[in-house]
Amino acid sequence: MISVNNRDFLFVPIADYLIPAEKVAHVQIGNYAEHALLVLTKTGYSAIPVLDSHNRLKGLLGIGMITDAILGLERIEYERLDNIKVDEIMQTDIPNVKTTDRFQKGLDLLINHPFLCVTDEDGIFAGILTRRVVLKQFKKYIYTTQ
Ligand code: AMP
Question: Structure pTM?
């Protein structure tokens, strides 16, 4: 990671701040909502990426999307969890962020998203950029530039 006593970090590629793909909990296209709910509950994350079998980023899945999909007229229909696939309910309109994009782009997008999914030039999932990482960077910047 770079020295942060100036604003250079804004121009550094997002790749330098990623939580790498191998450390990111995810589900795969074709997985059932029941499996996704288990992963989300056990990890405690509000949302996780959905990948295909070639590790290409396909969407994002959060607990709210699952509960919304099984919401019946009078009750939550848990028995439907093993009939619904994650790709039927995932969010697909997510920001397009590349490893080569600058930190500043991540900063702008993180105002409206708790984390960003980042891909390489071929669309292969590379990792995530989280608000936590960005805030830590800012904290360092603020405390070292008084
Ligand atoms: P944070 O900024 O660390 O609180 O993370 C914000 C969100 O990013 C979490 O609620 C998750 O949805 C996602 N996230 C963070 N770390 C991971 C991880 N290792 N695997 C999957 N999702 C993660």
Answer: 0.91
Distance of alpha carbon 61 from alpha carbon 40, whole angstroms: 9
Q: Whose alpha carbon is nearest atom 20 of ligand 1?
A: 24
Pocket, ligand 1, Cβ cutoff 6 A? 19, 23-25, 45-48, 114-115, 128, 130-132
User: Is beta strand 125-130 parallel, antiparallel or unpaired with respect to 27-28?
Assistant: unpaired
Q: Which atom of ligand 1 is nearest to the CA of 44?
A: 10
pLDDT at 86: 98
Q: Which atom of ligand 1 is nearest to the CA of 131?
A: 2
Tell me the sheet residues that pair with 102: 13
Give tens-digit pLDDT for 34-88.
999 999 999 999 999 999 999 999 999 999 999 999 999 999 999 999 999 999 9
The correct CATH number of 7-144 out of 3.10.580.10, 3.30.413.10, 3.40.50.1580, 3.40.1280.10 is 3.10.580.10
Backbone angles phi, psi at 120, to 5 degrees: -85, -175
- Which ligand 1 atom lies nearest to the CA of residue 133? 2
Protein residue with its CA nearest to atom 3 in ligand 1: 132
Q: Where are the domains of the chain?
A: 7-144
pLDDT for res 79: 97
